[in-house]
Specification:
The chain contains 19 helices and 20 strands. By secondary structure, the protein is α/β, with parallel strands linked by helices.
């Protein structure tokens, strides 16, 4: 064997194909049918550009890295005979290990693959992240050792290395760079978004973003929208627009006008005095049409329908963002972002001498919710998958994947009811996880399907099977909702307990070619059920999770106990609240949404006599005013 060039070329090809395969498995970048795949590649032209862009990025980094490493090895070890081979294999080793770690860390991020929430993995704790993947470190060790042994053996067998000559290297490098520039120029928004999932392109993208952030304000020429002033650190995308100062701090829609006084109360309801306790039941990824959905002539959720029939159903309730962690934070704190001090209803209840019971099917460290809301600190009884690891429905240790079955939650509630202090008011929080992707686990009853759809078969062609699997999960949840109601009745506290049932967000089941939530403003993803055990709650205007928080807070406050609705509209957004990808609102009972997609500078909504530019600016200012009010001064 005379040269390692062919070996390196084959290894590079295999490594690139491996990453492409992982991208398809995780995000379905080529088939476009994946969970949370909001930027599908629609044709072969886009697929070709995606491959060209990621391949040229991969080779650019390889060529640059090996050149620098080779020169460094020659300088440090002048007698080294094959520095280029070592540099090339070193690149392959590091890239491969990084790729493996990346996909191990994100493998079960089923409902938060967007970069705006990936930061919440493992509670933003490196220590937790290591713990979560500890069972997978052994699987990394063996291939690493084998790779190292192979490199040593190959290095010894090589008579000499024949790297590219300088003029050939420059020609190859120039060709790769030209291909990269051409691909970037021709790439559509979908191609660029998918390419950012490629490790090499994402590295280049972040490097360029950092280098063009001349005023170091976090906003660059690559931001969407771009930095309004690259040399002024007070003006950037994500800045809070201060009302009436004549300056457009974020460069979106002109300066925000002086804020008007708080909107008038448009609807209100006083809870009957009989209700002493509060039970909030959140059902993961639950669509508003659960109350009317039938399969084979059977209603999916008879227990929820009965609760609505004897109590109340709010027809126009919405999640603001469509993501679990942000939705739950807003529901329980009333705020859109966890900046400053926002007292949660759990802390409020604790201060008002309630007994607080948290019984959750999700890991409450997800998104640091337990810390942000103070649940673990103030709860008299705290129960989640971390406290009973033997009852998890999945083996993964990642916070986004640790789930408990609804049966486990119901059993925990029954045990808890045996120990509550009936002389005190009670706050119960239950979180059901049946609706979480992939909508099936081995402990789930099969009522409307013979078999849950496997992940590998989830695509648009199997939409009907997928839909039935999801609705079967909702039926399973409803069965346990019925058991919760029975448990309260058996304890003798049902009539004095206000039950508030709702979804944290909706779920799109390829309704418009998309699967998941949190990436588009539409009714499938944001319209949620809201059912109360109290009769006579007849709110007709749209209500959001922040408004529902006001109801919960009012109920806990002994001096209030009145639910109110302020104004006409509910603010909607996707992405980070401070840097949304979309801004929207719903103002009418016909669920007509108004949406401003910032990346495309596009407005969609009901026909209006107003100019489109004015409609977009109005939505932008609605969000800016909410951001200003929500940000600590």
């Amino acid at each position: 064997m005379k040269s390692g060039g062919k070996i390196i070329a084959v290894c590079l090809l295999l490594l690139f194909l491996l990453e492409a395969s992982l991208l398809e498995i995780k995000y379905q970048v080529f088939s476009g049918d994946g969970f949370l795949q909001a930027n599908r590649l629609d044709n072969w032209y886009e697929i070709f550009l995606f491959i060209a862009l990621t391949a040229s990025s991969f080779l650019m980094i390889f060529l640059l890295t090996t050149q620098l490493l080779t020169k460094g090895l020659r300088f440090i070890f002048p007698s080294l005979t094959k520095p280029w081979f070592l540099a090339a294999t070193g690149y392959i080793f590091v890239y491969g290990i990084s790729l493996t770690f990346s996909y191990k860390l994100h493998h079960y991020l089923a409902d938060h693959v967007d970069s705006s929430v990936i930061q919440a993995i493992a509670g933003n704790s490196l220590e937790n992240a290591i713990v979560y993947i500890s069972d997978e470190l052994a699987t990394l060790l063996l291939p690493t050792v084998l790779f190292t042994i192979c490199v040593i053996l190959l290095y010894r067998r090589l008579a000499h290395e024949v790297p590219l000559k300088t003029k050939h290297y420059r020609l190859v490098a120039l060709s790769v760079f030209a291909a990269f520039i051409l691909s970037v120029t021709l790439a559509s928004h979908s191609v660029l978004k998918n390419a950012q999932r490629n490790m090499a392109f994402n590295g280049i993208y972040k490097t360029v973003s950092t280098l063009t952030d001349w005023d170091m304000d976090g906003s660059t020429l690559l931001s969407t929208p771009s930095d309004p002033d690259p040399f002024d650190s007070t003006l950037f995308w994500g800045a809070v627009d201060i009302p009436g100062n004549g300056i457009d701090e974020n460069g979106l829609a002109g300066d925000l006008a002086v804020l008007e006084r708080r909107a008038e109360i448009t609807e209100s309801f006083k809870f009957p005095a009989q209700y002493k306790n509060l039970m909030v039941i959140v059902s993961e990824s639950t669509r508003a049409d659960i109350l009317t959905k039938q399969i084979n002539g059977q209603y999916i959720a008879p227990n929820l329908r009965q609760l609505a029939a004897t109590g109340s159903s709010i027809k126009h309730a919405y999640s603001h963002s469509g993501f679990t962690s942000t939705s739950l934070y807003t529901l329980f704190s009333g705020a859109f972002q966890s900046k400053g001090t926002h007292k949660s209803i759990f802390v409020q209840a604790h201060e008002n001498n309630y007994e607080v019971s948290v019984i959750s099917g999700q890991d409450e460290t997800w998104g640091n919710l337990d810390k942000k809301l103070g649940t673990r600190r103030v709860a008299d009884f705290f129960y989640d998958p971390q406290t009973v690891p033997d009852k998890r429905v999945y083996a993964s240790k990642l916070a986004s994947s640790i789930k408990l079955s609804d049966a486990t939650i119901t059993q925990a509630l029954r045990k808890r009811l045996d120990h509550i202090d009936l002389s005190k008011r009670q706050l119960f929080y239950l979180n059901f996880q049946s609706g979480h992707f992939p909508y099936y686990h081995k402990f789930m009853d099969l009522k409307f399907i013979e078999k849950g759809i496997p992940r590998r078969e989830i695509n648009q062609e199997n939409k009907a099977w997928l839909s039935k699997t999801y609705w079967n999960a909702m039926a399973y949840m409803d069965d346990h909702l019925g058991q919760v109601i029975n448990a309260l009745k058996e304890k003798g506290i049902y009539d004095e307990t206000l039950i508030v049932f709702l979804g944290d967000h909706g779920e799109e089941l390829f309704d418009s070619g998309f699967l998941g939530h949190g990436h588009n403003i539409n009714t499938a993803q944001l319209h949620i059920p809201l059912v109360l055990s109290a009769p006579g709650v007849n709110f007709e205007k749209p209500i959001g999770l922040s408004g529902i928080h006001g109801w919960l807070s009012s109920f806990i406050d002994p001096a209030s106990n009145t639910a109110v609705k302020y104004g006409q509209c509910v603010l909607l957004y996707t992405g980070k609240f401070r840097k949304p990808a979309q801004i929207g609102q719903v103002c009418s009972a016909d669920n007509q949404l108004q949406v401003y997609t910032i990346a495309f500078d596009q407005y969609t909504g009901a026909p209006s006599s107003e100019p489109i530019s004015k409609l977009k600016a109005s939505l932008a200012h609605t969000w800016e005013s909410a951001l200003f009010k929500d940000t600590p001064k």
